[in-house]
Amino acid sequence: MNGPLTYIHIGVGGFGQYWCTAVLPRLKSLGLAEAVAAVDIDRDVLPKAKEQLGLSENRLYTSAEQALTEREADFVTIVVPPAFHEEMVDLAVRHGCHILSEKPIADSMEGCCRIYRKVKDAGLKMAVTMSHRFDQDKQSLERLIHSGRYGQLDYIVGRNTWTCRWRGQWGQFRYDIADPLLVEGTVHHFDIMRSLSGANAKWVHCLTWNPGWSEFHGDSQALVLLEMTNGVKVFYEGAKANASQLNGWSRDYWRAECEQGTLILDNRQMRLVQDLKGERVEEPIDLDEREVWTHAWLAQMFCEWLGGGDSPPTTIDDNIQCSALLFAAIESAHTGKMVDVAEFLRRHMEDGGR
Predict the structure, then answer these.
(1) Is the link from the previous residue into 82 a cis peptide, with omega within 30 of 0?
(2) Domains of the chain, earliest start first
(3) Phi/psi class of residue 106: alpha, beta or left (left: φ > 0; alpha: ψ in -120 to 50)?
(4) Which of 8, 18, 222, 277 is buried deepest, with most CB atoms within 10 A?
(5) Which residues lie closer than 8 Å to 301 by C-beta, 6 or more apart?
(6) 273-290 in b/e burial notation, b at 16+ Cβ within 10 A?
(7) CA-CA distance, 156 to 158, in Å (whole number)?
C-alpha cells in the first residue's frame, strides 16, 4: 500500500460522532487512512468534521452523491440508519468504492441480499462493524470456550436488559421502526451467539412483544431459543423497557455451559464455576488485553484487508449469516413459528438477491 487509503465518511451526527472522535482519527494516526470528505444531511453537525477529521469547508457535503462525484476515495464508511444503507451502498458501488458499514447490512432480508449481490458482482470489499462481538469481555469468553480447556460446549444463555422505555432514551429513530430491539440491539447478540458457539444458526424460535408502558412503536422485548448447526443450544433474553437494567449495553450476561465447567460473563467480569469434585469451585478469570477493541479494531482490520492483509471476521460473506438469523428471528416473531435459518437465507437469496 503506497500511502494511506482515502475514504468518505457518511453520517457525522448521532452515532457518527463516535466514529469521528474514537474510530476514524486513529486510522490517520496509524497511517492507514485519511478522510477526503464527510457527509451529513444536517448542516448544523457537519462543521464538527472539520476538526475531528481534518477537513476543509469545501469537503463537507449534505449530499453523498455529490461527495462521491467530486472526491475520489478508496472506500466509504456508512453510519446512517439501516433504511438508508442500500442507497449509500449503491452510490459506493457506482463509484467503485469499498464499504465499511454499520450493522445491519440493511433493514430487510431482501435488502441485505440485494446489497450482497451488488457488492460481490462489482468485485468490491465490504465489512460490517459487528462491534459488540469484538469487545474485550466477549472476545475473552470466546477464546476460553474454543480453547477446549473446559471440554465440549453444550449450551449458552445470554441476557441484555435495559430501562429505555421512554422516547429518546435510546436515540430517536429506534422508537419509530418495526422490531427495534432485534434490528438495533439483538443483531449484535445474534452475532455473539455465532462466535461463542462457533457455528451458524440451524433454527430459531422467537417471541417478541411491546408492553403497555413502552413508548416504542415496535416490539421492545424478546425471548429467543436457537439451535446452532453444531448442536449447541442458545437461550436469550432481551429487553429495552424493563424497570431495571440488569445487563445493559456492553455489560451483557453470557453463561457457557461446558462439559467440565460453567463460564459466566456478567457485567464485564468473568468467572469459572465447577461442582464436579464434591466441592464448589469459583475462580475469577482475567479478561484478555490488547490496545483497542470494537470499532477501532474492526476499522483497522478493514484497512489492512484493503491493503492486502487477511480478511476481517466481519466481511459481508460472514455477516449475511448474521443477517439471515436476525430476519429469520423477526419472521418467527411475526408468525409464531420456528424458522429454518439456512432455508430462509436460500429462499431470500433466490428471490431478492438478483
Answers:
(1) no
(2) 5-131+294-315+347-352 (3.40.50.720), 135-285 (3.30.360.10)
(3) beta
(4) 8
(5) 127, 309, 312, 313
(6) eeeeeeeeeeeeeebeee
(7) 7
Q: Which residues are 225's β-sheet partners? A: 205, 235
Q: What b-and-e string marks burial along 335-344, b requiring 16 or more CB atoms within 10 Å of the CB?
A: eeeebebeeb
SS3 per residue for 164-227: CCCCEECECHHHCCCCHHHHHHHHHHHHHHHHHHCCCEEEEEEEEECCCCCCCCCCCEEEEEEE
- Residues 292-350: tens digit of each pLDDT: 999 999 999 999 999 999 999 999 999 999 999 999 999 999 999 999 999 999 999 99
Task: Please provide residue 348's backbone torsions phi and psi, each rounded to the nearest 5 degrees.
Answer: -75, -30
pTM, whole model, 2 decimals? 0.93
User: Can you give 68-126 as a three-state secondary structure string?
Assistant: HHHCCCCEEEECCCHHHHHHHHHHHHHCCCEEEECCCCCCCHHHHHHHHHHHHHCCCCE
Residues 6+ apart with CB under 8 A from 3: none
Q: Is residue 189 a contact partner of residue 199, using CB atoms and an 8 Å limit?
A: no
